[in-house]
Write a structure and sequence with these properties.
This protein has 486 residues and is α+β, with helices and mostly antiparallel strands. 43% of the residues lie in helices and 16% in strands. The longest helix has 18 residues.
């Protein structure tokens, strides 16, 4: 007998259904919205010449970047360590990188967790270590007023070089995290994201969201220390500073505290793209008696270094950005939802794009129709020139405002370092955005939002939502624990 999953592999029927559904109900124009108080708009392309950060490299391979800004007495730093994120978790130890990062903050060989917290409170400073479940890097970051910054950096260096992985803190983290694994399954957005990532990435590390209870139980202080020793190396790392500090001051501080961080002489960790999506699919996660349906529509997008990045950025701004088509149509015109939008991640490998919203169960059908129709309209019809120009100006204006923050400017340079972008990449950013044409945006929509690649995930009441989804194609149903329901 043919199973549901076997049926889902026959993508042709599903693709045709999605396309016909979109064509059958083209979205109406948003003429009911009235935009008031329009400000004067310049048609000149914004010209930017960003200050260049000072740079240096230590003998152990650690790079230093400093963006000086002495307007306020504050310094922030961010240390990026390639190869120490959850992307590189062992297959039998999912969540290890996040576990390691969390416990590094909870004690060194000379300081307890309480002493670290007390020192930070006394300084009025922040200090954090993080490693996302699918991230390729771990990051140590902190901020303090200028007089307190040397003491903060002493603490950060101690935490980085001498983590103790105390057993009581390991047990406490394990217990707390296992509890959150249960709680998070009451969140429909988590359930939808978990299933969508599996559809989009398969077994690729990018599909990872959380540790499993089994991997948490298997982790020990020694296994965490082993991961730390092999992944927290300076060879390809970079530490960036922004604020009231000079390159000479930063270099002296880093050399004295981190100069002894031993070089491992290892190659830079590599990543690979996930396998291509094999057809469109529809999935429903059962949430009995839910008064809302949470919907995610997603697919594989592109790597951060793709030549299509800017065109897709503009196309996505038109579709799902602030005051974009999805917002105007499904929220402002129809009143289906309080919030809706779309976006895609930046990663060295092919990442994901998705549009998401939650609507009342009784409007699931028209909301899904209109959402798919808006995506189809982006593929099939060039964006009107005025709408395109408005979206591009919004992107450039947001970028211009962000340059008021030294920390945000530094993050742009960290991106440049991470993805090996040209030195003038951010100077040229407004011009690249402004150069995107309607044809460019439509080509990106056709390439990345094709109906044959779209994955549809809904979380809601099966009895009410399944018949709606079956109009599109065969539906695979799961419970909140991720187990298929026959």
């Amino acid at each position: 007998m043919t199973t549901t999953m076997q049926i889902l592999r026959n993508a042709g029927v599903l693709v045709a259904a999605v396309a016909s559904l979109a064509n059958a109900q083209q979205p109406p124009s948003t003429t009911q919205m009235v935009l008031k108080g329009k400000a004067p708009v310049s048609k000149e392309v914004l010209k930017v010449k960003m200050p260049r950060p000072g740079r240096a490299t230590l003998a152990n391979g650690l790079e230093i970047m400093v963006l000086e800004d002495h307007r306020t007495p504050q310094v922030t730093f961010q240390l990026v360590i390639p190869g120490a994120g959850g992307y590189f978790d062992p297959t039998n130890g999912l969540g290890t990188a996040s576990f390691v990062a969390a416990i590094m903050r909870e004690g060194t060989t000379t300081r307890s967790s309480a002493q670290i917290s007390e020192a930070l409170e006394t300084m009025g400073a922040s200090l954090n270590v993080g490693a996302g479940a699918a991230s390729t890097t771990a990051q140590v970051s902190g901020s303090a007023l200028t007089p307190s910054f040397p003491a903060l950096f002493d603490l950060a260096a101690d935490m980085l070089l001498h983590p103790a992985f105390p057993a009581d803190e390991v047990n406490r983290y394990r217990s707390r995290t296992k509890g959150s694994l249960i709680q998070v399954r009451a969140n429909p957005d988590f359930l939808a994201t978990e299933r969508l990532d599996e559809l989009v990435f398969g077994a690729h590390p990018a599909s990872r969201l959380l540790a499993s209870a089994a991997s948490l139980d298997a982790a020990t202080p020694q296994s965490l220390a082993d991961f730390y020793k092999s992944h927290y190396v300076p060879d390809h790392a970079m530490i960036a500073f922004a604020g009231d500090i000079t390159l000479a001051q930063a270099r002296s501080m880093v050399e004295s505290r981190l100069g002894a961080w031993p070089k491992a002489n290892v190659a830079k960790p590599a990543t690979q793209d996930p396998p291509p999506i094999q057809g469109a699919k529809v999935v429903l996660i059962s949430r009995p008696n839910s008064v809302q349906t949470t919907m995610y529509i997603g697919t594989q997008a592109l790597a951060r270094t793709s030549t299509d990045y800017t065109s897709l950025l503009v196309a996505n701004r038109v579709l799902g950005g602030v005051m974009g088509r999805l917002f105007r149509h499904l929220r402002e015109e129809k009143g289906y939802t309080y919030g809706i939008g779309s976006g895609f991640a930046s990663a060295p490998y092919v990442s994901a794009w998705n549009a998401s919203t939650s609507v009342r169960t009784d409007v699931t059908d028209p909301a899904l129709h209109d959402l798919l129709a808006e995506i189809a309209l982006m593929r099939d019809t060039p964006v009107p020139q005025q709408e395109l120009e408005d979206s591009k100006r919004a992107l450039v204006a947001s970028f211009a405002l962000s340059l008021e923050s030294p920390q945000q400017m530094l993050s742009y340079y960290i991106d440049s370092w991470t993805y090996n972008l040209p030195a003038t990449y951010w100077d040229d950013y407004p011009a690249r955005i402004s150069a995107v044409t309607a044809a460019d945006a439509q080509a990106a929509a056709r390439k990345y939002w094709d109906a044959s690649r779209l994955q549809i995930v809904a979380v809601g009441d099966v009895a009410k939502v399944r018949p709606i989804l079956e109009k599109i194609g065969p539906v695979a149903v799961y419970d909140a624990d991720g187990k298929p329901i026959p």
